[in-house]
Amino acid sequence: MTLPRLLLILVVATTSVRAGDNATVDTSTPASRKTHLPRMSYLENGDLRLGIDLNLGGAITYLAPATNRELNVINSYDWGRQVQLSYYSGPVPYQPPGTTMSKSWHFIGWNPIQTGDCYGYKSQVLAHTNTGRMLYTKLIPMHWPLQNVPGECECEVWLEIDGSIVKARCRLTNQRKDTTQYPARTQELPAVYVNGPFCRLMTYCGDRPFTDGGLTQINNRLENGHWGHWLATENWAAEVNAAGWGLGVWNPDCLDFSGGFAGQPGTGATLDAPTGYIAPNRREILDHNIVYDYHYELILGTLAEIRAAVYRQAAHPHSLTYRFERDRQGWYYADATDAGWPIRGEMEVHLDGQHPQIFSPHFFMHAETSPRLTVEAAFSAGCTNAMIFWRRLDDKDFVKAQAHSFAVVPDGAFRPYEINLGTSPAYGGVITQLRLDPESTSRQARVRLKSVTLGPDFSAHGKFPRPYGLAHGP
Fold it and tell me: In terms of C-beta density within 10 A (0-12 exposed, 13-18 middle, 19 or more buried), how is residue 244 classed?
């Protein structure tokens, strides 16, 4: 669940706390947005000027055309806006002993963010370099719902500019003492807030991406209770003004997006309340010791220019292959856990719940060109069978009619299980997600997964299609 940050509680205090075992954070008296003194670091080319605030964890607080420096598109009404990192895990609620939690935000749980907390305490920058070509920042984030509680983690961000595009690489390094593997939660990758004039949220949601099809306007208003959520099948969305110019956000690993508008559309500047919001989303398990990477791009321009920039870089795979060599590739579980981080060549899934399920991230593949599923897996003793489910573009959830059962060999040995989903009358349209349900008679059973491939009927072509990986990170 992605969350708006439209609250700033100001508390006047000075203290010193420890972040993890290695760093001491000396926090300063919280400052309001009106008395905050920025410490900026900039990159500029002939197309845009980018600025980050080192007194707000190095979050992006300034982005404008190089020819019009007054046209900053980024909103900074409180410390939960900007363009910034925001991560989620358990427990929910999250309140370590001796800490103070805002009752307004108890439902967020574990949530370190880049700029600071809802009380006004700011994150600490540990290192920063500006080479003139790249901005690098390392920081200790703050937990948004808590008063002056740094995260047991470190974050790093690399920013470069290329024409009218900001290219970002982001890393979370967890150092939590709590070693519980909490269920996957939806991440903001990243959280992006723009000023009030950029109030038209545009995206593509159709079944023919990268063909210049008609765009959709997302009209969700936070005042009506929630942000909008949709599948952006071209992996981007943009908040633009009445002239169709504004800021686009592209994350090639995300189809799930959330966003909308809060306040009076069409009015306001950087320190004013009205704001448009976009976040590419992906459900991820964030282990206590994980190193989690992702990347995204910000694109200034007209809708046509934003879309063209995405088209120049977007991949169009004929097959989809997830190889669990170094990470989970966005896969996650319900009623199951795994052996934890780091991932070394496979995911060892423990079927320790009542109804264990293994979910893929969202993707986009036409059923007619990708009927063949191959699961490279080893099933332990106690496993009896498995079901594979699929979701289509317009499905709200998985349904029983869209499933295929296959027998497994419970001997602990790896083998490819090849399943022709095309034999099912229900396999059609656009496929956007898979779910593997192993069936077992024991909660000690295990499934080890090396790879999952969805693609053409390769037996007819005499060879396996070229794999396409979705590994993310710098």
Answer: middle
